[in-house]
Design goal:
By secondary structure, the chain is of the alpha+beta class. It has helices spanning 15-26, 56-59, 89-96, 102-111, 133-138, 186-197, 222-230, 241-244, 255-262, and strands at 3-9, 31-34, 42-49, 64-72, 75-76, 85-86, 114-118, 127-128, 131-132, 148-157, 165-166, 172-180, 201-211, 214-215, 250-252, 267-268, 282-286, 292-299, 304-310. Strands 1, 2, 3, 4, 7, 10, 11, 12, 13 and 14 form a ten-stranded mixed sheet that branches. Strands 15-17-18-19-16 form a five-stranded mixed sheet, with helices on one face. It has a two-stranded antiparallel ribbon with strand order 5-6.
Length: 314
Amino acid sequence: MDGVLIIDKPAGMTSHDVVARVRKITGHRRVGHTGTLDPFATGVLVVLVGRATRLAQFLSGAEKEYEAVIRLGYATDTGDITGARIETESHAKAQSTQSIREEEIESALASLRGEIEQTPPMFSAKKIAGRKLYELARRGEQIERQPVPVRISEFATIPDGASPNENDDGTLDLRVRVACSAGTYIRTLAEDFGKQIGMGAHVAELRRTRAGEFKIGDAITLDRLHQVVQSGSIEEVLLSPDTTLSQLPSFELTPESARCVGQGIDLQVDEGHALHWLNGQQVRLRNTAGQLIAVGIYDAERQTLHPQVVVVSA
């Protein structure tokens, strides 16, 4: 059982919980994931099984897409609905505000599109000096964090131009869609949006709808996974390692070259095959049956493909 499962993570489970559940359902111990989701969040979680776990490095940096509800009116200490409420003067402003002008919303959204910098939140799994920030935050510690560059390629209301909905407690909910680079914190984006509007803000709902090439329509629930495993039809939902990296160019190996690549030996390629490859290009190295043997890195100077990660050993 080597491949990738696209799981629709339910709320209330950590990403690690999902991995543990997949291990139990499939009976396979070698399981991992790419792109952690917070426990309260739902949606696309890419789970790697068997030898496909070696492909994590090629998937973890993919662009992500989310649908979220930003609640305006008060901030929380975690930046999301699970945290403790932080009282500020901005809450009083939110309660007395019947509506926010559409141009204010668009101006705030636009200011956070493109290349921006984010300061990682204290309640995150990011490590500084070997220590996870959320562990420090739970002990009441605050440490200095350096801003990091991220890319927000889309940040818009759902539907376009929609106004916030007012809740009974005077807070306002704005549904948004975000497409962003890996490593972006939607909680921080929501807080920064609130600052642009002039209100405290946090994420009330979060659903990942895409991770790289994998969309929510491709995802299955854990209950569905259990059903297909019990019926012996796991192949219905398990993506092959080759399919998982379909965005990369491919190179077909002869039986002899497949054996060499499986042993980690560099492969010489002629200029015709590498015509459109740049130096450092990642290439799927497949046998004649279409099975992924390795992911190679093209060296333009030597005109070779170096097997960076071997999936099927010789």
